[in-house]
Amino acid sequence: MDDLFFLPATEQRRLLVEKRLSATELLDSHLSQIDLWNRGVNAIVTLTPERARAAAEAADAALHGGAEPGILHGLPVAHKDLHETAGIRTTWGSPIYADHVPNRTSLIVERMWQAGSVPLGKTNTPEFGAGSQTFNPVFGATRNPYDPSKTSGGSSGGAAAALATGMVALADGSDYGASLRNPASFCNVVGFRPTPGRVPIWPNPLPWWSGSVQGPMARTVDDIALFMAAIAGPDNRIPISIQDSGSIFSPPVDRHVAGGRIAWSPDVGGLPVDPRVTTVLEKQRNTFEGLGCRIENDEPDLDGFEEAFMTWRYWRFATLMGDLLREHRADLKPEIVWNIERGLELSAEELGRADVLRGALFERAAVFFNRYDYVVCPVSQVPPFDVTDEWVGEINGEPMEHYLAWLRSCYAFSVIESPAISVPAGFTDDGLPVGIQIVGRRGDDLGVLRMARAFEEASEFGTVRPDDLRKPPSPAAGSGASAPRP
Predict the structure, then answer these.
(1) 332 membership: H or E segment, kind and range
(2) What CA–CA distances, in Å, run from 343 to 175, 287, 303, 351?
(3) d(Cα 417, Cα 411) in Å, to the nearest integer?
(4) How many angstroms separate the CA atoms of 176 and 415, rounded?
(5) What is the residue range of 142's domain?
(6) 415 domain residue, yes or no
(7) Running DSSP on this structure, what letter comes out for residue 477?
(8) Residue 354 lies in a domain
(9) Which of 74, 127, 111 shows the shortest CA–CA distance to 214?
C-alpha cells in the first residue's frame, strides 16, 4: 500500500468502494508524488489541491452516506490544458491566454467530474496543441520521466508524464495527428484514440468535424475501459455522436483474441522508421502469434492521406484561429502562423480535392478491414528525442518536410477515422520506451481494446516504471517555468 499511486485505477476504485481506502488518503498519496516529481518533469502546470481535497472529502462522505459510487469515484485525475475547466485556469499553452479562467467546462471534463473523479489540475501541452513535443512559452517543456533529457511527446505530453510517475490515476487528452498515442508511446503508458464521435467534443464550433477526438490516457487497458465508460456516449449538441452508451466499455476487457486477423506493417507503407523502433517492435510479432492471431505483412492503401490530412488541418487552423493571427501574430509560434496562413490561401478546388481523396481512402480502408481485423504498426517513427529539439528534422537521413511529418505513422489512420491505441511494447537499448500501435476498423473500439488488453497481459512492459523512482530529476533539469498555480 506504500505505492497506492501506481495501482491500476480499477484497483484504486475497488479499494475505495470497499472502504479499505479513503479518497483523501488516495489524494495524499498522489500529492506526495507530485511533490516528488513535478518540478523535475513539469507535467502538471496548474495545481488545484484545495479543490481536489474538497472533492475527495465529498466522495468519502457520499460513500459513507450510502450513495452509489460513480464510475471514477475518488480517482485523482488531471485535465489537458486545452480542455476548458470552469474556475480553473485554461491557457492553451499560449501567452495570449496565460491568465484565462473560463466560465464553462468541456464535456469530457464535466463527465469526469460527474463520475466522481478528484481534479488535481491541468497538464502541459504545446501551444494550442500544435505538435508532438510538449513545450510552450507559458510553462516551458515537459520532460520524459524515463530520461529527463528527452521529450515526453505531445500534445498530451503532460498527461503522459503525470501518469508515468504516479501523479494521477487517469488523465484526459486529445488527438488529431498523434496526440494521445505519441506521448503514450514515449512515456510507457496507454493512449487511446477512439472513433470520432465516440466521445463527443463540446464546446465545439465545428460540430460536424471528425478529424479531432478527445479521449483517455491511463497505465493499463482496463483503466482505459473504465475511463471510456465514464466519458463515452452521445450528446445531442454534437451531430456525429455515436449513440452507444459508455457502459459498453465497463471493464474488465475481454482478452480472447485467438483467430484475430492482423496486418503487420513495420513501416506503414514505406515511411522511414528509426531502426531502434523497428528492433523493439519486431520482437513482438511472436507475442501476437502466441495469442493465436493470424498475421500477414500488409497495410491498407493510404495513398493521398498526406494531402487530405494537411489540407483539412490548414483549413481548421484558419477557420478557428484566423482572428488570432490578425490580432496576436507576434504571440503565436511560427508553426501555428504557417498553418493558419496556408489555410487562408486554400482554394475551393483544393478543399474539394482533399475531400475526394479522403472519401477514396475511407472506401479502400473499408475493403481492407473486410480482410483484416487490425493493423499493427509503429506508433512513432522515432523513439523519444532531445527535449531541446522542437521536432524531428530527419529519419534515417530522410528530411522531414514539416514539423508533423515524423508523425505520419499515426495521422495516416486519423484520416480514415480508425480507433487506434498505443500500448507499451519494450525499450531501446538505452532504456527509452517504445509503444506499439493497434488500429481497428471504424467503430470497433471494443475490438481494439480487446487486442490491446491481450497484448498487454502477454508482454507486461507497462509495469516497468521510471528507474529509481525515489530520486526524480532535480528541478534544475526542468524548463525554468514558474511553479504551478491555480
Answers:
(1) none
(2) 20, 44, 22, 10
(3) 10
(4) 9
(5) 4-298+372-467
(6) yes
(7) G
(8) no
(9) 111
pTM as predicted: 0.96
Contact residues for 41 (Cβ-Cβ < 8 A; gap 6+): 142, 143, 144, 145, 148, 152, 161, 165, 472, 473, 478
- The length of the chain, given as a count of residues: 486
pLDDT of 484 reads 41
| Cell numbers describing residue 393 | 528534422
Does position 158 have pLDDT exceeding 80, yes or no? yes
In a domain, residue 353? The reply is no
Strand, coil or helix: what is 292? coil
Whether residue 383 contacts residue 188, with contact meaning beta carbons closer than 8 Å, is answered with: no
Sign of the alpha-carbon dihedral angle for 404, 413, 134, 337 = positive
Reported as a single tens digit per residue, the pLDDT across 354-368 is 999 999 999 999 999
Under 8 Å between Cβ of 170 and 442: no
The residues that are catalytic are: 80, 155, 179
Domain assignment present for residue 365? The answer is: no
Cell numbers that stand for 282 in this block: 519486431
| pLDDT of the residue at 91 | 98
pLDDT tens digits for range 160-179: 999 999 999 999 999 999 99
- C-alpha torsion 26→473→50→175, nearest 10: -80
- Number of domains comprising the chain: 1
**Residue 197 sits in a domain of what CATH number?**
3.90.1300.10
Q: What are phi and psi of 274, to 5 degrees?
A: -55, 130
> Which residue is associated with the grid cell 495469442?
291
Name the nearest CA neighbour of 308 among 417, 232, 392: 417
The reported pLDDT for the residue numbered 485 is 36
- Give the pairing of strands 118-123 and 76-80: parallel
Q: How far apart are CA 336 and CA 478, in angstroms?
A: 25
Cell representation of residue 471: 530520486
Measured in whole angstroms, the distance separating CA 349 from the mean position of its chain's CA atoms is: 33
Coil/strand/helix, residue 423: strand
SS3 of residue 121 by DSSP:
strand
Mean pLDDT for the stretch of residues 12-29: 98
Q: Smallest Cα–Cα separation from 175: which of 417, 6, 390?
A: 417
Strand, coil or helix: 306: helix
